[in-house]
Amino acid sequence: MEKIVAQGLLYDFYGELLTEHQRRIYEDVIFNDMSLSEIAEEQGISRQGVHDLIKRCDRILAGYEEKLRLVEKFNQTKLMVKEIKELAGRYKESGNEALIDKIEEISEKIGQL
């Protein structure tokens, strides 16, 4: 399940950089949960051809992430936003000025991503 989520995220960020043919087949596997045999029959190619194309797409998408780190930055930003929300909630409860300093520090980090 984690692999499919990771593939979906990579596709969300970099899928437009694949060819139309690659996108169509990759979407069938990742989002439409079709088997390699079903896709092969539908596309008129071999099951091995579908398998190879999916592996190639995985490598291409992982290569983009290795260079650009957009998914990593997205995940870091999500964690920091969650921390900001928690700190803001605690500030409302306590009125502690140190929490505001921490919120400002995190927001600066987000700005640097």
Automatic annotation (TrEMBL):
InterPro entries: RNA_pol_sigma_r3/r4-like, UPF0122, UPF0122_fam_protein, WH-like_DNA-bd_sf. Keywords: DNA-binding. Pfam families: UPF0122. One of its GO terms (molecular function) is DNA binding. Belongs to the UPF0122 family. It comes from Candidatus Copromonas faecavium (nom. illeg.). Gene3D superfamilies: Winged helix-like DNA-binding domain superfamily/Winged helix DNA-binding domain. The lineage of its organism: Bacteria, Bacillati, Bacillota, Clostridia, Lachnospirales. It comes from the Bacteria. This is UPF0122 protein IAB28_00510. Might take part in the signal recognition particle (SRP) pathway. This is inferred from the conservation of its genetic proximity to ftsY/ffh. May be a regulatory protein. The keyword Transmembrane does not apply.
